[in-house]
Amino acid sequence: MKRTLLAACAATLLLATSACGLGTESTGSQASVSRVPELKPDQKVSIVFESYNFGQAGAWTDTFNELIAAFEKEHPNISVTAQKPQGNSANPATDTISSLQSQLTAGSPPDVVQLGFSDLDFTVNQLKALPLDDLVGKDTVQANFDGEEYPYADSARTLGDWKGKTYGVPFVFSTPMLYYNKQLFTQAGLDPEHPPATWAEVRDAAKAIKDMTGKDGAYVDCLTKAAKDWCFQALVRSAGGRVISEDRSKLTFADPPSVEVVRTMQDMVRTGVMPNRTQMQAVESFARGDLGMILESSAIQGTFLKGAGDKWELGAAAMPSFEGRQAIPTNSGAALFVFSQDQAKQRAAWELIEFLTSERAYTTIATKIGYLPLRTGLVNDPDGLEKWADENPYLEPNLKQLEHLEPWVSMPGASYLQIRDGMMQAVENAVYQGANPADSLRSAQEEASALLPGGGK
Amino acid sequence: MTTDEVAGESSRGRRLGGHVVLGVLSLACVFPIYWLYATSLRAPQDVYSLSVLPWPLSTASYTEAFAKNDVLGMLFNTGVIAVLSALGQLLVALLAAYAFAAWRFPLQRLLYLMFVGTWLVPFQATMLPNYVLLSRLGLLETLAGVIIPTLCSALGVLLLREHLNGFPKELLDAARMDGRSSWSTLWTVVVPALRPALAALGILLAISAWNEYFWPAMVLQRSNAVVQLGLRSFMGTEGNDWGPLMATAGLACLPVFVLYLVLQRHIVNAFVRSGLK
Amino acid sequence: MVSGAFVEVPAPVRSREACAAGMTDTVPASPAPWQRVRRIAPPYLYLLPAVVLLIVWTYQPLAQTFVLSTYSWNLVPSTPMVDVGLGNYERLLSSPELGRSVWRTVIVILGMLPFTLVIPVAVALLTRRVRGRAQGVYRALVFAPMLVAPVAGAAVWQWLLDPSAGAVNRVLGTDVNWLNTAGTAQLSIIVITGWHVVGFAVLVVTAGLAGINPDYAAAAQIDGASRSQVTRWITVPLLSPTLAFLVLMTVLLSAQWTFPLIDTLTQGGPVGSTTNLYYLLWEYGFRSHDAGLAAAAGVLFFLGFIVVAALLTRLAERLSHHDD
Amino acid sequence: MRGKGAVAVVSRIQLQGLTRRFGAVTAVDDIGLDVADGEFLVLLGPSGCGKSTLLRMIAGLLPPSEGRLWLDDTDITHLPPQRRDVAMVFQSYALYPHLSVARNIGFPLRTRKRPRAEIKAKVAEVAATLGLTDLLDRKPRELSGGQRQRVALGRALVRDPGAFLMDEPLSNLDAKLRAGTRAEIAELHRRLRATTVYVTHDQVEAMTMATRIALLNEGRLEQLGTPSEVYDAPASVFAATFLGSPSMNVVDATVRAVDGALVAEAEGLRLSLGIDADIPDRPVRLGVRPEHLTLTSSGGQGIRAIVTAVENLGSEEVAHCDTGVSVRGPRPLGVVPGEAVTLSARPGHLHLFDHDSGRRLAWQAASVPQPV
C-alpha cells in the first residue's frame, strides 16, 4: 500500500499547490444588454458562426459556404469564420450545447450559434444567450420577421421567444412526415397514391409489405434517445397527451396517452412490422429501398431522393393520426442566437442573422437542402420558390401541416437533457427492448421529476 | 524457441494444426480490413454487394471523397501532427527515461509513480481543463495545440526506461571516464545503441498520434483538419455515405500500413528483444 | 631468561585515529555548494520537460477536478459555482447508474480477457510451432487491426454489422441488429475492441516468451516432460509476469479502449447497455453539463483505479518468478 | 597536457579517510592510501569488500561520503571524472557497441576535440602496441573476448592518462587467456611505468602483478604491503586465510612457557615457537601454511592427525586431515587416507594471531625487538 500512499501524497501536494483555474471568472451580470450601435462603414469585424450543418460533407456544407461568401460580399467589412460543433456524435446537432458550453467555459464563445428549440430554456436561462430585443431593438427584430416581402409564418415567429422577448431567430425548420416507397407499396398490393393516414393503417400497410416483399415495413424515427424528443412529443400530442404540463412544471409523459403511443409502437415491433434499427440504420435502409415507410424529418428528404434515384419512387404524406384524432405535428429545427461579448461583433452577428433569414437565403436553403422556408409566401413567388415548389410534390403535405403545428417544448432547468434522455431511453427500452411501457415510463418519470427545477413539486 | 528443434513426435501434424488455427485467426483479423478496401473499390451501385471480389473495380468512391473533402490536405496535416508529436514524445521520454536509468536520486520513486499514474487519470476528466488552458494560451485551432498536451507519453518513458535499464551501466561510466558530459553521452553513446528501440517506439507513437481523433476534434474545430475527422463527415444521421467513407478510411489507414509493412520486422523485433517484460 | 611480550601488529593507518593523534589534516569532504548542485541537478534537469508537461496537462487538471468535485456548477462562467461539499459524491453514489456502469465495466474487462490473454498466449505458442516466414506473416496479420484508426475500424464494423445489408448477418443468416440490441451491443463492442488490441497482446506475449531462457524447457524435456507438460508447468508459469502485465493493462485500459468505439457506434446505448464508467463520466461532463458530478466521478474512478492497480501490482509481484 | 610520448609523467594518488555509505551500509570505511608514481597497486579482497566502490570513487564515478583524494598535488575529491586525469578499464570492457574498434579507441580523444590526424595516428600507435591493427574496422560484437579486452585497454592507453584504473579486467576471460593477458598487462606496466590501481579478487593476479597489495575486508583496509609481505607476514587471520591455496591452517592454541621456551599447545598439537621466554599462558590462533608442514614419522613433536583424503594437483599433492589441517608437498606425499601422521613445522613458519582481534602478534623482547 506504500505506492498508494505515495500517490495519494502526490495528489494532495498538487492539490495544495494548484490554483483553481476553472470557473468563477464571471463575465458579469447580463441583466441588461444595451443597444448596440450600427457598424461604421470602415469598421472591420470578424465573427465566428457555429452551425451543426457544417459537420457533414456535401450539400449542407456547400450551401452554407455559399451563403457566407454571399454575405461577406455584401458586407465587406465583416468576415465570418464558420465552424462545426466540437464532438464526434454521428449527429452533430447533438453536440451543439456541449460544444458551446466548453467554449463559454474557455471564455471565447462563437458569436452566432445555431441551436435547437429543445435547448431554448437552457440556452436562454443558463447559457445566457443575448436578448435580441434589447440588442437591436424590438422593432428591428419584428421588421426582420416581416421581411421585405414575405413574412415569417405566424407559428414560426415566436419559437425563439422566452417570456415575451426574442432571443433566437428561428432559422431552419422541419416537420415529421411519413415517407414511403411507392414501389414497395405496389409490390405489396397497396395503392401507392393512398398512403396510410392513421397508425392502424400504417401497421396494416407495413404488415402487407413485410409479408409480400420480405422487406421491412415501417420505422418511426421518434422513439430513441438519439432521435431526441421532438416527434415523440408530436405523437403524444396527437394522442391527446403531453409530455410535460402546459406550464412546464410537471412531467406527464407517463400518463395514459403517452403509454398508449408507446404501446402502439411496441406492438408494431413485436409483430415484426417495425424493425429494430438505429436512426441512421433506418434512414439508410429506407434510402436503399429496404424499408416501406419511415416517419422522418423533412430535412432528410434530400437523402431519400438521392437514394431513390431511378430505382424506386419516393412518396410523402402527412404525419399519420391516431384513430379519431387530429394529428398534431411539432417542429424540429433550430434558431440563431447571439453570444458575442463585444458590441461590434454583436452588431455584425445581427447582420449575419438578418442575412441568413432573408428571402434570398431561404430560397437557397430550401432548394439546396430541403428545409422548409419559414417565409412560406416564397413558394408562391415566381422569382422565389414557386418553380421549386411545383417540381417538389413532397412540399405540400409539409406546408399543410403548419396549420396544426405546435412548438417543440423544451424541458426546463439545468438538467433538461437528463430529463429528455431519461424519457426517450424509457421509450426506447419499451419499444425496442420489450420493457413494459407503463412501468418503464413511470419509473423514468419519477427519476426525471427529481431533476426538475424545485424537484418537480 | 529451441525446444522446437528437439526431435518431436508427429511434428508435421502439429505444424499443420498450428497453420490451421493461425490461418483462421489471421483471416478473422484481416477480413474487416480487406472488406474496407473492397467496399471502397466497388462501383457506387455495387456498394451493398456482398461479392468477395469487388468487380468491376471503380475509383468513383475515391473521386467523391476527394471532391467532398480536402483529403490530401488532411493527410498532410495528420502526417505533420503524427511526426511532430512522435518526435516530441520521443525526445521528452528519452530525457526522462535517461534520468531514471542513469541516476539514483531522491524522489525518484515518486516521480516514477507520477508517470505510471497518468494511466489512472481518466482522460475525460482532464479534457476540459486542458481545453480551457489551450484557449488561454491562444493555441486553439493550431497544430501546436493538438501536439503539445500529448508530448509527455508515459508509455514512452516506461518503455525506454525498461530498455535503458538493460543498457550496461559501465558504458555510461566509460563515457564519463572518457570525458563525455552526461548530455553528450546521451547522444553519442545511448541514442546510437538504442536506435532500434527508439525507432520502434517512434513508429508506435506516430501511429497512435495518426489515429487520434478525439483531441484534434476538440482543438481543430473549424476544419476537418485531420483525416479521422474527415471520416466523420461521411457519417451522419442521414446515413453513412459508405463508398467515400470507406475510401477515406482506406486512405487514412494506408500510410500506417505502408509504414508497418516496411518496418514490420523492426517493430516486432524491438518489442521482442527487450522492452515489455 | 629473556622476557618479552606479544604485541599486535597495528592495522594500516586510519585517518580517524590519525586525526585523533593530530597527524594529518582531515577536513571532512564537503564540496562547494555549486558543485553539489551540479552533481545533484542532472537527473532533475532531464526530467524537467516531462514533469512540467505532466503537471500542466495531467495533474493540475486532476487537482482542479478535485476542487470542482465539491461544487455544483454547469460550467458556464456566468453561473456561480455553489459549494456543496460532498454532495456530488452522495448523489453519485446513490445513483443507480453508477452501479450499473461499474457492472458493465467489469463485464467489458472480463470480456476483454480472452482477447488480451487467452488468444494471445495460444497464438504465441502456436506461432512457435510453425517455422520460418510463416511465423512473421501470421504475426503481422494479427497485428494489422491495431493499425486501423478507431474511427475507421468503427466504420467498417458498423458496415459489417448492419442489420440488413451487413456481411455478418448475411453470412450467419441471422437478423440481429447487433449494435442496437441490448443483449448484443456490449458483445459487439467487446469483439471489436478485442479485434483491435489482440495483435498488440500477441506481440507482448511473444516478447515475454522470447525472454524465457530456453534452458528451462530443455531441462524439463530431459526430465521427461512432454511438450504439453512443458507448456503447462514451465512456459506458462514463467510467463506469468507478462500475463500479469496484460491483466493489469486490460483492467486499467479496457474502458478507455472501448470509448471511441462506443462513442462512434452506440453512444452508450441502446438504453444504456454500453454505458461503462468512462462513458458515464463523459455523459456527466459533456452531455449533462454537470461539472461537479463529472468531477466527483473522475475523482472516484481515479482513486478506485489506484486501489485496483496497487492490488494487481502486488499480485503480479507475488506471481513473478525472478528469472536472473 | 601530456606529451606525445608514451611515458606518463609523475602521478601519485593519495586517498585520505575515504568513506562511502549506501544508506545504513558502509561499503568503504575510512581508507587512506598513498599510491606512488609508477606503482601497480592491487586492491584485493573477496566480493563485496568495497574494492570496486573504492575504485569508482577514485575514478570519480561515485562521490565519497567522506574523505579526500589527491592526484599529484591537486585535490580531485569533487572533480567530475572527465576532469580527472585517469583512465579506466571496465570488467565488461564497456565497448560502445555501435562504434568500430578504431572509433572506440579514439573516443576519448574525440571528446577532447583533438585534430583528426592526431587521433588517427595515436589510435594506430596504440593498436600496433596491442596487436589490434587488423581489427580496427570491426565492431565490438565481431571480436573475441581477448580482443575486446585489448580494445578496452587501448581506449585507456590512448589518452596517456596520469593513472590507469582497472576493474577486474581479466575476469571475463578463460583461464588460459587470462594468464597470457596478465603477463601482457604486467609487461605493459613495466614499459609505461604508469600508476595503476587494479581491482581483483584473484590472488594469483594480485601476487603476480602488484608492486603492492591493498587487502580489503568489509570496507576496511586489512593490510597494505608488497605481495611477499602480505603472503609471508599476513597481518591478520583474514589476510592469512585469504591468500594461499589451500588456505593457511589456523587453529586455536595456547602459548605457554615450557622449560623456558614458548610452545603452542592444543589437543594433539604441540609446536615450538623458537622463543626463549617465560610469559603467562595466552590463548592465540596459530597459523601455518600447508606447504610449510612436513610429515614426520609419528611420535615426534607436532600435530597429530589422521589423513582423510589426498588430492592430486599434478606436481604436488595435498593431504587433508581430520583436524581440518592440510598439508601440501611434492607428489607423492606418501600417505594414504586413514593413516595417522604427525606434522611438524619450523618455528619461523608459524604465525600467531590474537585470539580475539585476529591481528598478527609479533614477539617483542623486553630489550631487543625480535622478529618472529
UniProtKB/TrEMBL annotation, chain A:
SUPFAM superfamilies: Periplasmic binding protein-like II. This is ABC transporter substrate-binding protein. It comes from Prauserella endophytica. Belongs to the bacterial solute-binding protein 1 family. Keywords: Signal, Transport. Coiled coil: none annotated. Pfam families: SBP_bac_8. The keyword Chloroplast does not apply. PANTHER family: ARABINOSE-BINDING PROTEIN-RELATED (PTHR43649), SN-GLYCEROL-3-PHOSPHATE-BINDING PERIPLASMIC PROTEIN UGPB (PTHR43649:SF31). It is found in: Cell envelope. Its main location: other. The keyword Transport applies. Residues 1-21 form the signal peptide. InterPro entries: Bact_solute-bd_prot1 (IPR050490), SBP (IPR006059).
Automatic annotation (TrEMBL), chain B:
The chain crosses the membrane at residues 20-37, 80-103, 110-133, 139-160, 186-210, 242-263. It comes from the Bacteria. The lineage of its organism: Bacteria, Bacillati, Actinomycetota, Actinomycetes, Pseudonocardiales. It holds the Pfam family BPD_transp_1. Residues 75-263 form the ABC transmembrane type-1 domain. Its main location: membrane. CDD domains: TM_PBP2 (cd06261). Belongs to the binding-protein-dependent transport system permease family. This is Carbohydrate ABC transporter permease. SUPFAM superfamilies: MetI-like. It is a multi-pass membrane protein.
